[in-house]
Design a protein that fits this description.
6% of the residues lie in helices and 32% in strands. Strand 18 and strand 19 form a beta hairpin. The protein is globular.
Length: 221
């Protein structure tokens, strides 16, 4: 099983965020996340669009932006240069490191996005960790709850909810779905439309090439 240190680089994280990556297993980051956001104040130093809704304690650093019609429910921590775009939704326990981006109609719940991580279009990110520079294609979903409500099992650990841990610089194509408990090593690329589960190592290409059938088109009557 890939460890936290094998997935994520913490070298240039600000001191307040480094303890989040101290856990050996990536899913343990979520417990640290809960404690971290609970200790943050309600300090809104960045820019909030007048149509946005911000509820509960939210730390918004200078240079951070909450865009039009976004909903941010605390406790959340939004770092410098991070952006919550049009119609996006952050639901409690979210940390966006510097330069992270949650874009149009994307929803993020109880997750950590490391510097430069992006969920830019119609994404769902639940109970997950996105490494630095991760990019989710449009419509990518990180599912966090088993279809039959069974625990998400990771070795000897069973969790009620856990989405995915995507190592630094992972890229996913449009409409890929990652099943609960998926762990993807750094720099791996996932094809559009792939359904991924389990553990994928670093520097891999996960291909999904469905067969297409081409048939003659009947002339119009």
């Amino acid at each position: 099983m890939l460890s936290t240190s094998e997935l994520f680089c913490s070298d240039d994280l600000p001191p307040e965020l480094r303890p989040l990556l101290a856990a050996h297993h990536p899913w343990e980051i979520l417990t640290a996340l809960d404690s971290f956001v609970a200790e943050q104040g309600d300090d809104r130093l960045g820019v909030i669009h007048p149509t946005a809704v911000v509820e509960g304690p939210v730390f918004l650093a200078e240079g951070a932006v909450i865009g039009p019609h976004a909903l941010v429910s605390g406790p959340s921590w939004i770092g410098p240069g991070a952006e919550v775009g049009h119609g996006a939704c952050l639901r409690g326990g979210v940390v966006l490191a510097a330069g992270a981006f949650v874009g149009h109609a994307s929803e993020v719940k109880r997750s950590l996005l490391l510097p430069g991580a992006r969920a830019p279009h119609f994404n769902y990110v639940g109970d997950s960790v996105l490494g630095r520079g991760v990019n989710l294609g449009a419509g990518v979903k990180l599912a966090n709850f088993n279809t039959f409500a069974n625990p998400v099992r990771l070795g000897a650990t069973a969790l009620r909810k856990f989405g995915a841990a995507l190592g630094d610089e992972v890229s996913t194509g449009c409409n890929a779905v990652l099943a609960p408990g998926t762990i993807v090593g750094p720099r791996t690329v996932i094809y559009p439309g792939a359904v991924v589960r389990g553990q994928i190592g670093p520097d891999r290409v996960v291909k999904c090439k469905p067969d297409l059938e081409l048939v003659p088109r009947r002339p119009p009557t």
